[in-house]
Amino acid sequence: MFHSATHRADGPAQPSAGPAGSSGDRARTPGAASPGGHRRRRVTPTARRQRRAAFLFLAPACVMVAIYVVWPILSTLRLSLYNWDGMSPASFVGLANYVELFHAPTFYTALRNNLIWLVLFLLAPPAGLAIALYLNQQVAGIRLVKSLFFAPFVLSGVVVGLIFAWFYDPTFGLLALMLGHGIPVLGDARLATPGIILAALWPQTAYCMILYLTGLTTLNSEQIEAARMEGAKGWSMLWHVILPQLRPTTFMAVVVTVIGALRSFDLISVMTGGGPFESSTVLAYFMYDQAVKYYRLGYSAAIAVVLFAIMLVYIIYHLRHLIRNER
């Protein structure tokens, strides 16, 4: 009797005599046929164990992201609604920090400088691609040349800032020796921001070069050979064959470059301190300045929220564009 009942449960489902949605339809067995004609799979004990193992492996990463990413974001959003100096009790002020921020002239100066950083910093991916294409060849001594181009990436931002501060020095700097006269690059409100960006492009270009060198190793050689047989070479080969395969690498290089441009801080702190007359400050340095120098943590959190929103909009746009192209 038990064997026959089991056999009926595992066999094909019998048509129900009742109407649709009746208890006969709702009580389908795990092995019953679905309306589309496909048999539903029963979840085996092995599948359950695999699913449980996957959840257990993902749990530590999810906990880490929740603690170190999600919780700080929510805390910053909450803090931006308060007036707090870090010691006395915080007082709720609502959107007053945002209202004050949008009426501050320094905010628009910092925002304009961030846009300048963004436009000029996007020179790093094409420059990195050009260097990667040059280094992606098998010639004698190419490893030494690669290490020389790779060197700026391993340097600290503080070291890069000091090197370029000495380079720009109008009295003994290399730029003054090359031009024959000194130019106060970091002391001129019009030249300070472009001078810092030029210093930042040095390691950023090296980073993009590394990304593209890695991407060039994953190219489909069959497509390249087929394109050569069709007569493609030079610019047409690069544009129609190589760049489409490097689209994920380009996306990563652009996103990292944009984030680096929007969170630029270390070189500004070392080279100008936001000066002269706050002409080279950016949102990240403005946020630090308000928090550390003036103990306005709520106001600083409001700046951080605005900066995060700008990054989020830009990254979501590029993600959607990448997904659309992949489809």
UniProtKB/TrEMBL annotation:
It is found in: Cell membrane. Its main location: membrane. The lineage of its organism: Bacteria, Pseudomonadati, Pseudomonadota, Betaproteobacteria, Burkholderiales. Keywords: Cell membrane, Membrane, Transmembrane, Transmembrane helix, Transport. InterPro entries: ABC_transporter_permease (IPR051393), MetI-like (IPR000515), MetI-like_sf (IPR035906). It is a multi-pass membrane protein. Residues 110-318 form the ABC transmembrane type-1 domain. Residues 37-46 have a biased composition (Basic residues). Residues 1-46 are annotated as: Disordered. It comes from the Bacteria. CDD domains: TM_PBP2 (cd06261). The chain crosses the membrane at residues 54-74, 115-135, 147-168, 196-216, 237-262, 297-317. This is Sugar ABC transporter permease. GO terms for biological process: transmembrane transport. Pfam families: BPD_transp_1. GO terms for cellular component: plasma membrane. The keyword Transmembrane helix applies. Belongs to the binding-protein-dependent transport system permease family.
